[in-house]
Amino acid sequence: MASKTKELYFDNKKLWIDTLILILWIFLTTIFFIKHDLSETLYSFAKKHEYLQLDELVTVLAISSIYMLFFMLKRFIELQKIIKTSNTDPLIGITNRRKGMEYIVNEIDNLKTLNYNSSLIMYDIDNFKNINDVYGHDVGDYVLTEITSIVEKEIRNADVPIRWGGEEFIIICQNTDLVNASILAERCRSSIERFVFKNDIKITASFGVIELIKNEEFKKQIIRVDNFLYKSKKSGKNQISF
User: Fold this and answer.
1) Domain range for 77
2) pLDDT per residue over 4-42, tens digit each?
3) 110 and 228 assigned to the same domain
4) Which of 37, 89, 95, 120 is deepest in the core (most CB within 10 A)?
5) In this structure, what are the phi and psi dihedrals at residue 39, rounded to the nearest 5 degrees?
6) Does residue 92 lie in a domain region?
7) Nearest 5°: phi and psi at 159?
8) What is the pTM of this model?
9) Which of 210, 112, 114, 122 shows the shortest CA–CA distance to 160?
10) CA pair distance 19, 15, nearest whole angstrom
11) Is 218 within 8 Å of 105 (Cβ atoms)?
C-alpha cells in the first residue's frame, strides 16, 4: 500500500516514532559522551586552567544540557497530545469533522493514483432530539458513546469513523466498493437496532452509502451521501440507501 495512504491513517503513530527518534538521539549522545570520556577531558582541561575557574562552568553546562534535553522531550510529548486532541472529538474519542474532512479529501486523491475503490457511509441516529428532551443530555451523550462502540466493533481497523456533527457520523471505508460498504452499513444498522440501551431506550439509525468518485469534488461527494441518508430518513428511518 502506498505511503500516502499509510500517512492518512497512521499520522498519530508517526508522532510517536518521532518521539522515539528523539529519545534514541539523547541515548546515543550520552553513549558518545561516555565512550569518548569527554567528561574526563573537560575535567582535565579545567584542572590545567584553574585560573579560569572552568570546573564549575563545565558542571553547570553539563547539567544544563541534560536538563534541556529532557525539557525538549517533555515539550515534544505535550505537543503530540495537543495535536491528537485537536483531531479528536472530546466526547467520543474518534476523529472530529475537521480532521475527517482532511482524511476524505486525501482518500479521494488516493483514488487518482491507486487501483482500488473506496466508499463513504453516513449515518444519523433516529429521533435523537427526543432522547435528549425526554431523558436529558447525559443520556444523549451515553447513547452517542455506545453507538460509536457498536459501530467500531463492526468496522475494520482500516476504516475511519468520524463524528460529523451532533448525532451524524461518517465512516471512510478504504478499499471497499459500494456493495461491500452497503453490507457493512447494514451490519451496523442491525447491531444498533438489536442493542439493549439503558432505560430500555429503543435506538435506531438511518444510513446513506456512496462509492467515492475520483474526479468528483469533495463537497459534491458529501452532498451525494447526505442525499442517500435523507432518502432513508424520508422512507421511514432505520434503513440504508445507496
Assistant:
1) 3-86
2) 333 444 455 555 666 666 667 666 666 655 555 555 665
3) yes
4) 120
5) -65, -40
6) no
7) -80, 145
8) 0.70
9) 122
10) 6
11) yes
Q: How far apart are CA 205 and CA 121, in angstroms?
A: 12
C-alpha atoms less than 13 angstroms from C-alpha of 129 in its C-beta half-sphere = 0
Q: Check whether residue 114 and residue 233 sit in a common domain.
A: yes
- How far does Cα 198 stand from its chain's mean position? 28
Q: Which residues fall within 8 angstroms of residue 143, CB to CB, at 6 or more apart? A: 125, 128, 131, 197, 201, 203
Q: Which residues are catalytic?
A: 167
Answer yes or no: do 63 and 113 share one domain. no
Band of residue 111 on the pLDDT scale cut at 50, 70, 90:
very high
Task: Determine the 3-state secondary structure of 16 from DSSP.
Answer: helix
Going by their DSSP bridges, the two strands 119-125 and 160-165 should be labelled as unpaired
Strand partners, 168: 124, 165
How many domains does the chain fold into?
Answer: 2
What's the burial of 237, exposed, middle or buried (CB within 10 Å: 0-12/13-18/19+)? middle
Residue ranges of alpha helices (H) inside the chain are: 3-9, 11-35, 38-48, 54-86, 97-111, 128-135, 137-154, 178-194, 218-234
Residue 192 one-letter amino acid: I
Distance CA 19, CA 80 (A): 9
